[in-house]
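Hi there. Long-time user, first ticket. I'm pasting a complex I've been working with (about 386 residues overall). I'd like to know whether the download I got is complete or cut off, because the file seemed smaller than I expected. Thanks.
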Amino acid sequence: MKIIKESVVGTLESSDLLVKVTPSDTASRDIVVRSEVFKQFGKQITRVVTETLDKLAVSDGLIVIEDKGALDCVIRARVQAAVLRATGAREPDWGKLS
Amino acid sequence: MKLRRSMLFVPGDNAAMLSTSFIYRPDSVMFDLEDAVAPREKDSARLMVYQALQHPAYADIETVVRINGVETEWWQQDLEVAVRGGVDIVRLPKTENAQEIHELEAHVARIEQACGRPVGETKLMAAIESASGVVNAVAISTASPRMVAIAMAGFDYLVDMHTHRSAGWEPELFFARAAVLNAARAARIDAFDVVYGNVNDDEGFLREVNIAKQLGFNGKSLIHPKQIEMLHRAYAPTEEEVSHAKRVLAAAEEARRNGLGVVSLDGKMVDPPVIHEAEMALQLADLS
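Hi, the file is complete. Here it is re-exported in full:
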């Protein structure tokens, strides 16, 4: 999926996360994760974000995560929503969202 | 017998509540995509609910998704999320007539086929929130074999009736409660009473729970986890009721062994309705 515009999804409330997606100038995919629990869960958060982006076939764009202790399912949902908004997709491809 | 005493509202875009509401053990958890979610957050909330429905923590709790009403632009996408996510029950708000249930049912069947769920697996419930909905409650309750419950929603109904909620026994809701409950019983489905909005007023909440219980509602829609335990306690049979129910069933069994049609207990006739009531009390006690 092609990131064509900036999108922001989520909140900075506890158990949530804020996801900001912007188009890339360099045709690369860059993921930045900031979290209060990065020491313990940084790798896991990055893995969930990466897997979600892979399923959605996002190959380039800047994805910035501000995590506030979200569960994996919340991370997945917020990243999916941010990508769908940033690609302008009207209807999700359900096979890529599980 | 599936217990449906407590149906806890969980806003579909509230990460904290989606992540924790299962720990309060409501009989049903209802992920809300309607009034609790702002229009510009509908897309994100849908995906949150889709993920939550598949979370193992909700595997042994009945899940309900309140979609947006059929008059909105959102309801069909809400339905896709709910059915594909594996929801147990879809709750349609502001149901006015049986035709809306027929339309909903057709779309649910289409999505079940598309995603490989057995057709008929997804159940439906309707919320009655208007004068015309109350008038059509029987037709709505019997509109589909998928219908498992009907819920009274007070706020919009009272606006439609040109009144507002009062304290005490709430005469302004009496007719609608009775009509909706009677429709549910005629259709052999469950019935939920209105939410009690003041979460700091335990006394008022319990007063209303007792009205709902005495009328015969299965339970209430709830907006705060703290109301769950109070509700469950209020609905649990007392030790005295359990003891009496056991004595009724023992007396009925003895009558059966002796070839008697009816028997009396403490001077009162034990007939089939009394036996049925006793069986229900013991089932409720077992499940509480």
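A couple of notes from our side: The beta strands of chain B are 6-11, 28-32, 62-66, 89-92, 123-128, 147-152, 190-193, 219-222, 263-265, 268-270. Residues 263 and 270 of chain B are 5 Å apart (CA to CA).
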